[in-house]
Queue: 2 jobs
Job 1
Amino acid sequence: MDEKELENFRQAGRIASKVREDSKSLIMVDASLLDIAETTEQMIAEEGAKPAFPVNISINEIAAHYTPGAGSIEMLGEKDLVKIDIGVEFEGAIGDTAYTIDLGGENGNLVKASEEALEEALKMMKPGVAVGSIGGVIEEAIKKHGYRPIANLTGHMIKSNDLHAGVEIPNVKTDDPFELMEGDVFAVEPFATTGGGYVADLNQVEIYSLFAPAKIRMQQSRKIVEYALTNFGMLPFAERWVMKEFQSKVMVSMGLKELLKNHFIRAYPVLRESDGGMVAQSEHTIYISADGVEVLTK
Ligand code: CO
């Protein structure tokens, strides 16, 4: 990437980092999930950027892809283990960062396991390192604490306007020989759990992205696609964002269902740890430099 693009990635990372830290004051017992999500997304807008995806608020055994729906009255509970995953898009560049807050105070070690795994992974990453071996270091760091990494969730390469640009950083040891190269950008996100270490889809979906924007006959659905393309491009968006734009919630929810059935959009179902284990997550976006990493979301 050229210097200009790198500067944009640095700026996206700085904003993501600032919003991550500022958002921590919102995470408390009885706080409204919708308020946390909307306030955090507002913080991103105030920095002159856009959310690269809806703020994910995943609680306890929910690992990822949950964001409150329009009109949600859910609140954080006394013992909730809360994962906040924030994406910032600035001039196409993306910063992706996450943290876990343990409101009940009983999962401190689990949180520490995910944080240490992230630290250990970043320490070993440099050009020439195989992604499968990074998974090995993450796995070992988490198991040292007596927990399991989530094997079917991974970190991911990021490119401009592309949140998941193909290459994955596994959270367990694999024989994937893909080697890091100077100039690559990755989100590294270890998930530690008290369960068996696998997530499965729930039926619930709050997050979508355009898959194949094409000519659509149904007028209502076409309006949704046009709105999504203009405002979110190919990046993930929340059902509640679309509902804000259109008068009828029923129209939006039927439109999205229709678009999904016809493969115009894809769904990101809520992901739950299969054994109901508690889940902690830590995440940074990093740039592979000549001899190591530059943490963009430090
Ligand atoms: Co993330």
Job 2
Amino acid sequence: MGSIVLETRDLSKQYKTQLALNHVNLRLQQGRIYGLIGKNGAGKTTLMRMIAGLGFPSQGSTYLFGTQNRRELEAAGKRIGSLIEAPALVAGMSAKENMHLQCLMKGMPDYEIENELLELVGLKDTGKKKVKNFSLGMKQRLGIATTLIGNPDLLMLDEPINGLDPAGVIEIRNLIRKLSAYENKTILISSHNLPELYQAATDFIIIHEGEIREVLTHEELDDRCKCYISLEAVNANLLTTVLEEKLHTRNFQVMPDNSVKLFDFLDERERVGRTLHENDVIVTKFSVCETSLEDYFMSVIGGKKNA
Ligand code: ADP
């Protein structure tokens, strides 16, 4: 298990009438890529802003590399790079000129590192081409290069693939993987689209209405998206009672429409049908399905989880 890079304890943020974060407790391990997934307005940007020190939480605390003291972090050479909202790029400048400007602004002008970072993000050969003529994917990669100035250990990227075409999504995905695999960076990357992040992230954090609804690894997500038996009955309460008391399982999920996803007994469907019938459950639907990533996401933020 890698060391803990970031920990939030009971982090909350209230904007006037809007509770944007509600007691968020998170622990991020070094070298992993966390996909922060939530619909628009879920609280993703607010969470990143609080971690980056771009705003003050109403309650709770953030520990970075075990400390709350940002000066101590700087002294230890521990850095956070963040790309929150649009990258601050100058449209009339080339990639190299933008990098140099950003390095100057951060007090670290170094042509070698500027070139190295441009190479890392695949923009070394763009020459004099101005940023205003870049594709959105190229702009995002340049934005990511600027966050890498100072060699941060934790990178936070807010919706970096939003609006990109499929080729742009692949470019960013490959870059993120490279940063994690070769540089052992911890990356927190947000999106409103779980399938889009599925290929890039090693772990997923599902946020809804300011609350962390679920944190799960890629393997766990795969497991949750496996096959299930979809059941509907005239009396949904009786159905779940029979599942629990007669089939001795809690490995099911009740959906908002009262249908039930049963993750057990896929090879014993007859037994399920028979047991329900014997216990007076009037079944109106019985089918075998597979959950898509999007279905799973919706079930976490909208459905009742039983298990
Ligand atoms: P996301 O990044 O997931 O789209 P945000 O963190 O931007 O979500 O927003 C979370 C909630 O907080 C939303 O309801 C949003 O309207 C509200 N919010 C965000 N920033 C502010 C602000 N500066 N003032 C008031 N409300 C805000």
